Each structure stands twice: as C-alpha cells, then as structure tokens.
Structure to design on (118 residues):
C-alpha cells in the first residue's frame, strides 16, 4: 500500500490461543467494520487462503480448536466447498466448472451425511 489512495480501509484481526503443545484451543476474530469497538467473535475453525501477488502461489492457514467435532468439520468443509463453487462462478463466469464443483460439494455433503442423499 505504497502511496495508494483508498476510499476505505478495513482491518481483519484474528487471535489464536494455543495450549502448551501449540495446538489451537481458542480462535476469535473481528473486522474493523464489523465491530469498531474491538469486540471479537469466537469460532472453532478457520481456513484462510491468500494468493501471493509476486510468487503467484497460494498461502494457507488452516486451524481448528480441539473442541471442533468431526461432524462439525464435515459441515464446515461442505459449506466451504459450496461457497468456493459460487465464488469461482462470480470470479470467472465459468458456469460448467462451477457446476462441477457444486456437484462435488453435494457429493461430499451426502457422503458425510451433512445433507440427505438426492
């Protein structure tokens, strides 16, 4: 952000509490737009993916707390897969590939019993 003009800047804050083995036991987050007073929201898991501008590579942070249950992770991954297909469609307008992704999300949801089989 060198000498660039922005209409608005929003900050994202993520705080991760770790146990003695450096495993996440608490995750909270906030954006400056969501809670200007600094209040955070607790969550059990997060996936963050960033595309590096210079190296053209994806950087990821995948964290979940010890209390995240497998059924919750199944639901979380299912919802992320659904969301990715919608994001991909909006970003590329590639309807065929987005529909393939959505079908896989549905398959994943059915196999993990998050959604009923069609």
């Amino acid at each position: 952000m060198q000498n660039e003009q922005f209409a608005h800047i929003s900050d994202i804050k993520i705080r991760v509490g770790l146990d003695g083995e450096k495993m996440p036991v608490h995750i909270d987050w906030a954006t400056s737009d969501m809670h200007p007073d600094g209040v955070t929201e607790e969550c059990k898991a997060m996936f963050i993916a960033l595309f590096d501008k210079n190296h053209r590579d994806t950087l990821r942070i995948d964290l979940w707390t010890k209390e995240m249950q497998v059924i919750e992770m199944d639901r979380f991954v299912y919802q992320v897969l659904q969301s990715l297909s919608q994001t991909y469609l909006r970003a590329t307008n590639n309807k065929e590939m987005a529909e393939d992704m959505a079908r896989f999300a549905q398959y994943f949801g059915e196999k993990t019993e998050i959604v009923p089989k069609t």
User: Anything to note?
Assistant: The chain has a mean pLDDT of 94. The two ends are 48 Å apart (CA to CA).
